[in-house]
Protein 1
Amino acid sequence: MSTACLAMPLPSMDASRNEPADADLVRRSVAGDTRAFETLYRRHAGRVHGAVWRLSGMNAARAEELTQEAFVRAWQKLDSFRFESAFTTWLHRLAVNVALMELRSRDPEDAHEADVLEAAAEPVRPFCAGERGDLEQAVARLPPRARAVLILHDIEGWKHEEIGRELGMAVGSSKAQLHRARGLLRRMLGEHHD
Amino acid sequence: MTDFEIQRRLRDLRGPVEPSRDLWPGIATRLTAAAAPAVAPPRRRLPLALAAGVTLTALAGVLAIALQRQPVERPLAGTDPAILPGVGRVPLDQVPGGDPRLAGATLVIDSAQAQLEAALEQQPEAVFLVGLLNRTHAQRMKLERIGAQAG
């Protein structure tokens, strides 16, 4: 079971009114101000960690490694941030790419075979469909590629074209993986009882 | 459960999840290490070596030509023409023809050659470095000829 916990409620607007904007903090960070970058970390760690935690199959240790890696890379690449999008969007995308690197390095054909074998070997143990934690567990138990496609499409809101490009697979393969992921999820959540 | 229902419930999973511990100390350590590398990577030293090589080669050419036109004079007592301030010293037996007027040029050309060779070791595929090294060799040979004529 994961040791990660849900985010605390966001502070009120009054509390954040006097805080520096992300863009200011980015400029100071580019100039070498690590305190400014720490503020960015504190502000965005939850969102970055949430994304990589889901993509890593809710593996807390791996998600923490990926979060650290994402922020170190963000620091190294900050001078390439052009302020054309929100910093949080840029950072989130970078973090997702860091999490996908491991998956991307696998040969798609081998990965497909491994996924099929992994899914076939897993006994179907239905979860209680009504609880959020059970849904998270079911997603975590999906084969890595199917899980990545499901998370990127259904949670992160990516298009199949983007997913295909990032994971090095055809659009059709991305759609097939999504269909398969939802089917497996339905089975794990007790659909077979209907 | 329909696809729509699955999507709706998955959307609820979106959102921040705080790590179970503060990851900043580990990140800060890595940032510090990245900000102050103990030794610059070899490729970063290449432009410096190259610039030095080019400058020294050009300087050596000018010195060689200038010295060729100078009359031979006895060095002043207590001074050694084989010492070039800020560059170093070269033994007279390594100076072409043993001519003290050529000591400075010899030192500069040899230094340029050494730097170019070091740069070439770092980047063996750099054809332009080979070209510069050839020019340095040509200048060294010219210096040898001047030394032989003077001797």
Protein 2
Amino acid sequence: MTTDFDELTWVAERLPEVDEPDGIATDRARLALLEHMSAAAPARRPRRRLGVRLAAVGGVTAVGAAVGVIAVGHGAEHPAKSPTTTVPRVAIVRQHHQVAGHPVLLRLASDVTKAPPPPGNATLVVRHHTFPNSPSFSGIDLYEDNGAYYYGATVDELRQSLADPSSADKELGGILTAAANAASMTPAQAANAIYQASPAPTGVPTYRTGLLTALKKLGAMKAKPALIEAIRRRLAAVSHATPAEAQRLAAPSQATIDNYLWGNCMDALEGGAGRPDIRAGAMLALSTLPDVRVTQTTFDGQAVVQITNTQFSDHYAETLDLDAHTGVLVHMNGGTAGQPDSVDVTYRVTRVSAPSLDPAH
Amino acid sequence: MREPWGGDRSSRDMHASQTSTDAAVIRASRLDPAVFGVVFDRHWVRIHRYCVVRAGPPGEDVAAETFRVAFDRRSDYDGRDDAAPWLYGIATNLLRNWFRSASRGERALRRSAGHPVGDELEDALERAEAQRMGPELAAVLGRLTADEREALLLHACGELTYDQIARATGVPIGTVRSRIHRARTRVRAHLDTLELTHDH
């Protein structure tokens, strides 16, 4: 049987639905471009690339200026390695999550914090990924306790990476540290701390600093007066606002916050799989997420605490299986109900001594 | 409705009226970098959509990077009135690199790529993108080469003409035609297979 149905139409109809970029996304991109353009302004000076922080995005200031943006700040300076490293992260003021936390996770976190300090100085994670329509593969991650991360597809490759300290990725270090510290906090505090560990955390004070920095930069590049004036007005609005109003001006949406928190916690549970304190902190934070479901079940015959996040669109969900006694990540999958999993990952976690990779006892 | 480019309507309109084509705007931006913001305002939504369709939420960062790269390369712009194909070409290259950025892709995509090496690079590219597209479209995209897939998506998602795709990807228009023809043929074969399956 044949049809005259146009193939391109068929493809176009099945492309994922994408909303138009919201104000936050647009302003982030615009700010990043502004900051980048400022480096090309006349009389520029030699400089390292600056990280950019974005604080809030609102519509219109109290005095009526239609302002889209705005804040550029000096973040931690780091070289750009890919597009994502140079893009400002959404700024951050947690708005709620003043919840008690899911009891199963709280109990497991409490148990885990009583574990003795782990041996060795690094966590070795062997991952095995399987996909419905693609070849599976394995990879080896090494997370040193000092925050450095190395990868190898094989042990030999990992050793080669270790031999070159410049290959270390330290981006996760802040999240892992925050999660470790969060182990002794309340769930809401833990969520806040881990969320704030995103690459460009900020709050109202940082937002104000960012506005000031933006003014300096835009002034240096002789930006359009109206834009500078708009930022001045935003700064005035934040400066004279009540604390609650200032926080509102600087705050991202709760959905954005939850999404970042989920991602950070996943990073923590993987990168800190060998560290009880990090696992406990991540579990406390995860226990506050409203779209997370926690169940006690088994995976491959092993008792696990299963954490499922349903915040995603199109009925997609991600699930983490943690060992029911230790909280160590053993399995993750993502997929849409009624369809084969999009991805399925199993983890084998050991503690080692780096750089020898000898098992730690 | 939000004001574009920081709400500086008067200044933006001044630039827009004086420099009505992208080429003129880009030329002007060589003297006054801030003028390049007009290019952003004109094309951000389209480039954003293209990148997010292909890479999911992380595509937002790729879209933003596209304009920074374009800004850096503005002195090399070919002078055509419409900068869209040029921007799509930059975005396509950045997406390709992004998909291949194994460790970052792993964390950002979560549900897709791993840390491919060697021959697995191409697999990862397909995997990350295919999972974003959903199983039905993934089954088709998985049958295409990277070049065919990019041409097809620039056409179907970016809504570029063959000529524009040729500009975006830097290949002759005849090559674009043959790539899209091959892609369509494979899509058709897949649809025929589906129909046969349903018939039986």
Protein 3
Amino acid sequence: MAEDPVAIEVTVNGAARRDWVTPRLLLSDFLRHRLGLTGTHVGCEHGVCGACTVRVGGRPARACLMFAVQADGEEVQTVEGLAGEHGLTALQRALHEAHGLQCGFCTPGILIAAGDLLERRPNASRAEIEAMLSGQICRCTGYKAIVDAIERVAGA
Amino acid sequence: MKPAPFAYERAESVEHVLGLLGEHGDQASVLAGGQSLVPMMNMRQVRPALVVDITRIGGLGAIEPDDGELRVGALVTQFALERHDGLEPAVAECLPYTGHYVTRHRGTVGGSVAHGEPRAELPLLLLTLGGSARVRSVRGARDVPAEELYVGAYQTSLAADELLVHTSWPVAVPGEGRAFAELAQRHGDYTLACAACHLRIADGRILAARVGVGATADRPLLVPEAARELEGSSVGEAAARAAGAAAEAAIEGYDDLHASAAYRRRLAGVLVARAARQAMERARG
Amino acid sequence: MLRVEDEALLRGRGRFLDDLDPVPGAHQAAILRSTHAHARVRRLDVEAARHHPGVTGVLTGAEVQAASRPFPAACDSPIPYYAAAAEVTRFVGEPLAVVVATDRYLAEDALELIEVDYEPLDPVLDPHVATLVTERDFVYGEPDGAFAAAAVTVSGHFRFPAWTGLPMECYAVVADWASGEDRLTAWSNFQGPFTLHSVAAAALQLPGSRLRLITPPHSGGSFGIKSGVFVYVVLLGLASRKLRVPVRWTEDRLEHLAASQAATIRTTDIAGAFAADGELLGVRIDAIDDVGAYVRAPEPATMFRMHSALAGAYRVRNLALRARVVLTNRCPSGLNRGFGGPQHYLPLEGLMALAARRLQIDPLELARRNLVRELPYRTPSGGLYCTGDFAACLDDAERLVRYQDRLRERDRAHAQGRLVGVGLACVVEPSISNMGYVTLVEDEETRARSLPKSGNAEGATLTINPLGGISVQVSTTPQGQGHATVVAQVVADVFGVTPGDVTVVTETDTAQSAWTIASGNYSSRFSGAGVGAVIGAAGAVAEKLRAIAGAQLDADPAEVELRDGQARLRSDPDAAISLRRLAGMAHWNPDGLPTGMDPGLAATVYYSAPEVTPARDNDISASSENGFVVDIAVVEVDRETGRVSVLDYVSVHDAGRLLNPLLAEGQVLGGFAHGFGSAMQERTAYGPGGELLTATLKDYLCPTAADIPDVRTAHRETPSPLTPLGARGLGEGTTMSAPAALHNAVLDALGRDAPVPLPLTPANVWELLR
């Protein structure tokens, strides 16, 4: 039993990535500093702020509360994997139009978390949106524009 | 803020976990959803030599009825339980307070029960409903009633080599009603106090009652003084108030940054009354 | 217009400092921090850490103090402030040593190997017994006479609690010391060279030209807090110098909560002298600012930021202020959204609410009787409220909230035993700070001996390249406010192009950008000072284009207009030359330029806001502009639990011309969120021994989407004659007004005759219901 590096293979935004990681390497650090996917932001490293939210195996997850080794064999989606060649997603457009971002640091986590909610609950109510967002801290907007944007997509 | 080094084992089966726990005991930590463990590891408040990842083992992810109880596998996520069809309303009531949307997707029911956070909602519910936890080790299996589960803050009666494999939640029968009430200073975060009530009524009288409170001590507590006020009383506002007052008188509470012991006592009393009202409502069907 | 900043951020292609490797091979730092609020450091043994695998080296506090000078500040302090502590540590989280390693994980491992032997000393947390740094008394008019003539005197004791802006991105620095030439290049998410570039250079004993500060394209919020990153520029710069490697440090949230920067804690005893009809005759303020363990520049500025608005929106001219600044064993304070405003208006507006109760005059009526009536208005302490109509804003707010209906609902609720309350706050919102206001800390004699300080100058550079593309570089270091969008919009209007044709560079580089001692992002100065410089630069280049076009078209340049990407004659739109061709001519054929014209199509222009002259005696115009905000809050207090719910909230602003209404709304609601948080749930708390109780985001409770109520806003756009486009700042007003309005609403709900302690947490409010 040792802290030796472990080989992992993770499919990130559709592309297979192989690497050696020590068990303690956080998924957030793996994505940012090994794979250069710096859109996943680190705001607290104790699971409260939500900035690092990604999807692992089709479920949203705080990347700061997972070890990279746990993502072995999984599909990971980050903010970089949201928009396709044809431009922004409806949610990205809605956030833009509603002025739902200012500094943009919390935005990737919100896109992933809200995207997950809308996938499961396409007609999510304002109260459901606010409850979901209560785990994603934003210090710039006062939230109203973010809720408006998500609601716009839910109502569409 | 990075975790200390550790060795990692991805368990293949329950037996594999039990073997590792039998060998490494309190040097090992079981990693399920990680929503409580990993923050503590990141802050180096805990530093297991070995992390046993149980998330890939099969057979611990089912929710199934079992002789008047709902058996919830240790790896069932809080989110899956929240979405479970026909879920007991009191449990449904407490889950939105359990962390946040994203953390509930990974946070497990078993993890929450085994972690023993004194302010957590699921342990309080399990205790108040009279549920239990099935634990296994290489030495065998046993059922631990919720009353015997918690011995202190973040401390359970589980031995270092034991793994919680499922929890059992008694299902309400006609005439029974359960409810949960909480006030948190901020949505989804540590509660200031929470309360649960479980009672059975017939002909407008309360035959039996259990009352529990959370975030008033180093573990969730049953409050028999409050239950006694309910038992034998007529269903109604007076009983709810009496239970609340009894709870307030019986609880000690504690001071911290967010509230005084006096406030916690009062709040717990208010929440006991609210939960009792709602439980009576439900018991009447 | 929608924001030009958004696309990259939405795609996860923002470029925050921790995303970038500005210099290859940077090593990673972790910082050993004091676990004691006050202690003598008997021994600090770094040997084991130094020899840990992967460790490059260790820099101790003693080495920091040997290699640097104390940070200067506007007033002398008995305790010198260095980037790290050596013999005595004075707050939890104060740096004691820096470990540099090949990787952050290893650096943190090595931190645990450092042995520190602390001898605990008594911490001081009570401002009334703390070390006094400075004390000044100010008197305007005849306050003694006013109090002698008063029919009613009202007083209150208020404490604005400890809180912090808490940006979602923490501090980050990459420091690269060039050993041969004694030159430090530091990339960091600081919020302006401001005075703090000079402060850092002085500490490093470097001429300013050898300290090059560079910001990345994006910064994850600041709200003032990132002004404090200069301390780490020095600390990591010294680590890089000692260890001869570039050093990277990204602050983690625990470090941030303990040691980044606090808002100033103010304790105020305030008294008001009122006539029987409610006229406010005089105000006495006795204020103590707790700036934490050291005077960190720009402190003690919090005390004086609001100085020219001492009486807020009211015409009272008899004022007395006793201003004291003290040191305690807390994290040092500094810029924080609202800076001095929340601390000033809580007691002032709280006083008005208490007086309304005492005088049995409706609070709106009491305000109306005392508001400044005719603008322009020169305040007793030297400020200028230039244009606007305060009473009309109050009327707007009254209508918007349906004030009379609210009072009836409140009274009905009271009759049912429910606790509903209505609270008002009227706030003068200063913007574009006078660089000279902090000199009020000195008496006139001392001040006369030093360099006069004034103004709020900003620079900008505009360039048109040979193909006609327009680039603008600003030094306003935005942190989410959308400066690039507004600059693109403003410049596009000058040149008759679309905003998409304008490239805006917001990265500031002190070796390249046009900046001044005032440059940066604070005091809502962008829409006035920042835009002023941009318009100046755009105007200079546009004038040149018109001159070239006039010569080409054989017309008076005054006849040339820039529209649709062309220069053309007003009288004959067919006589036109494209911008691209004009730019090509200027670049390719300087010889063909009109006689006497310099080559090149670029201009760097500096702009300083008017009405910000040096302090005279005790008078200062502390800000160039002053907007006006009226907030009305309607709340209900749960009698059983003490929980406060906001039932309605309106906020009416006169921020002059709104340059971009979408961004303006974002600033108002964002400012409200900070004010709401500080009033309702946020606080930095220390235990009796100085131990930090709010060490994680689980205990430091910034509001979430589920906590923030809906806010209804309205604007009255009286253009400012003092700013180039008639705009005033508006990003801080609601941070100033919300705590006062919410406080006053809870006061009303509870029917109290004494202030309610903040934050208005369920437990705090319940204590008053017992």
Protein 4
Amino acid sequence: MAQKSLSRRTFLGSVGGTVSSSAIVLTMPMLLAACNQGQQARLSGEKFKTLAEEDAVELEAIAARIIPTTDTPGAREAGVIYFIDNVLGDKREEALSLLLQGLRELKASVALTFGVAYFHQLEEAQQDQALIEIEDTVFFDTIRYLTIAGMFSLPEYGGNRAYVGYDLIRFNSQHAWQPPFGFYDADYAEKGQ
Amino acid sequence: MAQALAVTFPERDEVDFVIVGSGSAGGIIAKELSVAGHSVVVLEQGPHLQAADFTHDEWGIDHNYDMKWSTRQGYPQTFRKSENEEAELRDSVCGYAHNVGGSSVHFSGNFWRFRPIDFMEATVRGTVGGTNFADWPISYEDLEPYYTKVDWEIGVSGLQGPWDPPRSREYPCPPMPIKGSDVLLERAAKQLGLTPYPAPVAILSQPFNGRPGCIHCGFCNGFGCEVNAKSSSMIAMIPLALASGNCELRTGCTVSRVHTNAAGRVTEVVYWDEESVERAQRAKAVILCANGAETPRLLLMSESALFSDGLANTSGFVGQNLMFNGHSSVTGLFGAPVNAWKSVPTTRVVHDFYELDPNLGFYGGGGIDGRHPTRGVPLGFGLVSGQVFDGPSWGVGYKNNLAYEFSHVAAFNGHTTSLPQGSNNVTLDPTYKDKFGRPAIRCTYMDHEDDLATMRWFLNKSTELMEAAGAVKIAATYPETGQEGSSHLLGTCRMGDDPNTSVIDSNNRSHDVPNLFMCDGSTLVTSGRGQPTMTIMALAFRAAEMINNAARRNEI
């Protein structure tokens, strides 16, 4: 994987030695700064505590097809893989072993079909083709679940960095709102209903 | 302030009352009895969380079960549809919050009162074969003063009107401002000639009783309120109980057993304290308010030579007649932002179908309110988006749909009746145990065919409403193969005059054990139309008064 890993490793390394052990300890200002380093915040040097790097790269590549990067950030920019790494290490041994087994099978299937060693080495269209083959499996369901969870959980868990997940759906996690809350109640008030 | 006055009682001295559980009922009864001068020890298995502990942490709440607890925390439950099946291990079947205030901390705060018909429906409507459908031993009129007490002491926002059941006093707070999802419901309902009205909620629309009004953050259902605007027993009752100087609240205490003596009276409650040390608190009387799953489990675990089928279970009805309430949900997609994820879960309700026409050929009734289809939570919506409107479930198409849908959807939800059946119950799982070695709660449940028919009827009516509301896409769902869990845990120690067909009398006293009382969701004889907590709280105020009176007459 071609990493332009200036960036976060250097940046985070300069902030403090503790960050490498867990994405949870990252603070928001650090994350914002880190994300601003570029949209390619992938596997940028933070160590994984549960996953092997090789497996993390594969899982991230799958996550990035589930919520792709388009004109808006996707799973990759949200740091979904760090969320996945965190929660798999939190009493989810069964899911972890299921994913690792699934990755082994995917690897074998990718080698057979496309003649490459890894899923992440495929072109996007090939990746989608490979995923369509397995989209009814528990393996895919589990990655989809964790990808979406990583996109929309609080950044403390490692994903949803700089709230890119919330921004995508125009959800703002501010703590206080005042009416009107949306179009229809504004219209209701305007018409004096 | 309350903490400074906290009292501690020696375990070997008899206190007047031990209350198991500090939730909707336990918190109220603790406050009422301690303020009346009785010594009270409350045993609560969870921690005493405060407003500052509550966040918008959907992963923690919904997926790690931080408040509800599950197998992850060492509290497995099992489920099966019928007694012929072996129950399967599940993360959560009977869902309730484990903390001071219990589920009143994380509930949606939807606070419909039951109506007069709910208390006498078996007589009016006729029995339903194969069920234990029965009248209550008390009437709406008996309970009305206590509903009003809930309004004013707990804090309810709403608007008096012709659609409301009869009430002796106005709501203390005006209704919540209407949300877009409910504008859509209200306009559609009026088109169909119905009478939508402001939903009563246990959330303050303005400052009341020293607490602030709602800030509309949107995280009510499943979450604790971070400003104390939600009217939990944790914030409305427990501080008063502690301030009485007569109530000791012991948190982190897991009850294993209620002991009885040879005379058949309860003597003490055995529990593990927060250090997992086994202890026992002696008491003149015991009140179980542990909820509709935990209360029957504790009674079944408290069997003895004298009570071989479980404590207070001569009727065989302990744990039986479990009712979840039915539900259905119709989601519509709209052309402008609804933003139903903001503010309280719902602000309008349609109660025109509280009782369905008997000529339909099945029993049932309910209400419809407007909501966000996934309680406003983003992760939960991300999981269902794609399936809801038959779009892609991953990839660019999924992402684009999701980005639009989250703020542009509204749901019209049906909340409906469940019939009491002996085959729907809570029992002790023979295989799985919790981390203390207590048998796991085993839930056996299959909705009655009338309950499923009722859900379908409400699904169709909500679809009609959604069409009238002008939704561009509509998706409808209900648990057509039967529910497999709920946070409404009703009927498992039900109230009645006949000791053969009920567990407690009309004063919440065990038919079998004179100094044992039960009050929580298990008390309910019928399910109402969803939203049971208002009634559980009213029953708690009433039970506290009856228990206090009996204690003063030395009749316990």
